Amino acid sequence: MEFSLKSFDALTPNELYQILTLRSEVFVVEQQCVFLDMDQKDQKSEHLMFWDEKNLVAYCRILPAGISYTEPSIGRVVSSPKYRKTGAGRLLMQRAIEICRQSYGNQPIRIGAQLYLKKFYASLGFEAQGDIYLEDGIEHVEMILR
Fold first, then answer.
1. 4 forms bridges with which residues in the sheet?
2. What is the mean predicted confidence (pLDDT) over 115-137?
3. Rounded CA gap, 128 and 123, in Å?
4. Of 37, 109, 134, 139, which sits most exposed with the smallest number of CB within 10 A?
């Protein structure tokens, strides 16, 4: 298994297809949430992919400050249902945090976490900040890693 980090323009058509398929499989179908996943932020993001040969295991995008939040952020964090409970999501987030630190220095990283994953993100050092809010019908909470 290996990581790959690419800008939007460097993604191959196959990589982009697999990313969008996984995001749709989880965020739209599994979570039964009808929303427009393509939000014009992908073009400004770095895309972190975790591969098991040709299978996309997990994915997230890393956004510079000023796109989603004042701080750099990690978003669209998703693990393939076939690879859940393997630690892939934790490895992905640890790598994403490292990349944020390398790219943006030792500044806070903000995420909009689905509420049911609050403990997972807290185990990585993120702290909840603010009130619970609904995004596309799903409870979220902003979290920050200082």
1. 49
2. 96
3. 12
4. 134
**138 SS3 class:** strand
Instruction: Dig out the tokens for 65 from the structure.
Output: 């400050």
The confidence score (pLDDT) of residue 77 equals: 98
Would you call 43 helix, strand, or coil by DSSP?
Answer: helix
Q: Given strand 46-52, what is the order of strands in its sheet?
A: 2-7, 46-52, 55-63, 73-79, 109-114, 138-145, 127-135
DSSP string of 80-132, one letter each residue: -GGGTTTTHHHHHHHHHHHHHHHHH-S--EEEEEEGGGHHHHHTTT-EEEEEE
Beta strands 109-114 and 127-135, pairing class: unpaired
User: Is-above-0.70 flag for pTM?
Assistant: yes
